[in-house]
Amino acid sequence: MEKIRIIEAKEYVGKEVKIGGWIANKRSSGKIAFLEIRDGSAYFQGVVVKNDVGEEIFETAKNLHQETAVWIYGTIQEDTRSKFGYEIHVKNIEVVGGSIDYPITPKEHGTEFLMDNRHLWLRSSKQHAILQIRNEIIRATYEFFNKEGFIKIDPPILTGNSAENTTELFHTEYFDQDAYLTQSGQLYNEAAAMAFGKVFSFGPTFRAEKSKTRRHLIEFWMIEPEMAFMDQDESLEIQEQYVAYLVQSVIDNCSHALSVLDRDVELLKKYTELPYPRISYDEAVKLLQENDFDIEWGEDFGSPEETFIAKQYDRPVFILNYPKAIKPFYMKPHPEREDVVLCADMIAPEGYGEIIGGSEREDDHDALLESIKAFGLTVEDYQWYLDLRKFGSVPHSGFGLGLERTVTWIAGTEHIRESIPFPRLLNRIYP
Ligand code: 4AD
Ligand code: MG
What we know:
Layout: E1 2-3, E2 16-28, E3 32-38, E4 43-49, H1 50-53, H2 55-62, E5 69-78, E6 86-97, H3 111-116, H4 118-121, H5 125-147, E7 151-152, E8 158-159, E9 170-174, E10 177-181, H6 186-196, E11 198-206, E12 219-228, H7 232-253, H8 255-260, H9 265-270, E13 278-280, H10 281-290, H11 303-310, E14 317-320, E15 333-334, E16 337-341, E17 343-348, E18 353-360, H12 365-374, H13 383-387, E19 396-402, H14 403-411
Parallel strand pairs: 1-2, 4-6, 7-11, 13-14
Antiparallel strand pairs: 2-3, 2-5, 3-4, 5-6, 8-10, 9-10, 11-12, 12-19, 14-17, 15-16, 17-18, 18-19
Helix pairs in contact: 5-7, 5-14
This protein binds 4-amino-1,4-dioxobutan-2-aminium adenosine-5'-monophosphate and magnesium ion.
Residues 163-164, 184, 186, 207, 209, 216-217, 220, 222, 224, 354-358, 398-400, 402, 404-405 line the site of 4-amino-1,4-dioxobutan-2-aminium adenosine-5'-monophosphate.
């Protein structure tokens, strides 16, 4: 008898198989029991008929508790009434691991309770669907950048300096030196771009940010491409192609997960249409002021501002050329405007906020040195980074896409905490 996973059921119609799984739910009457079985690949129904299996096995079925681990033996059948389309007619059940008083029952639970039980909550169908979408976005990311000729680079996680800002650094000790958890691999990616031309990194990044919003994690994963001989306009084209590719991949390969989440696929299809609109920071401020937002030129946008701007469009939008003062030290000033930099944030639709931050990098040694000083950073820490401007410096651009913000948006779920298996939040490091 072949051991299969539920997701493979369609290839085994009429055949006897063995499946290792857990009991997600159960209902029974006098002569028949319906088991909802999950095995990590999918959920489906197991039908146990007393007259077919006999008294003993039927009793076992009737007494299964939620999350009991079992071997199920039986025959796969089509089941046109279920979304999944297949079920198993059970012949035998072998209990592998018992489960008494499983805390997450089919009734509603509060968020804090679910977060305390995150290690078990992962088994629920909604969490399963969101993390499948996360997996697809990861897979499609590697596929996209490999196809485009990028090399994957792994920058260090322990670093000696700050990549984005000094206020949100996680400090640690590195023997007798100070060290920080990386905020972004970008500076190292720039070194790698000068070695390989087109590179991307994909790893965990850390922000000691005292933000408690539905968009902020303390530890999140970022995809950071960096391209030599590429200006900001060309970088924007890669960004929109990449994001459209992610959305299309999820539509193509996660239809079941999207239906579990009740995600409107027609809406997602809109997000694959290129180009994405571009609006300057100047224009955005004007638009906001005309609509009674209390904002002055030079101030950063918060979530209400981003949401308002996003609502003007039916797909993600780029906001270009922010004031130099509110962006990091490495961004290259606009050639005709000293007060703004060649950068863009991509804002997702439906109020999901910024999913990409990117820019052209300052490639002139002396201008970069001035900027490092002006931002109050220690020049010695950035000596290696300045070297890149001494030995064959070229125009180059890059960007960072936040994985969890992107998952949250594409999955259409409310809060970023569900987009990563074990979220690190302002007040939570358990489990
Ligand atoms: O805009 P950020 O800070 O940009 C950088 O770190 C650049 N060095 C990237 C680069 O050019 N290589 O962060 C990039 C993205 C944001 O747009 C957002 O999607 C995500 O990372 N992000 C967060 N996601 C979750 N929680 C947080 N606290 C985040 N901070 C940034
Ligand atoms: Mg940003």
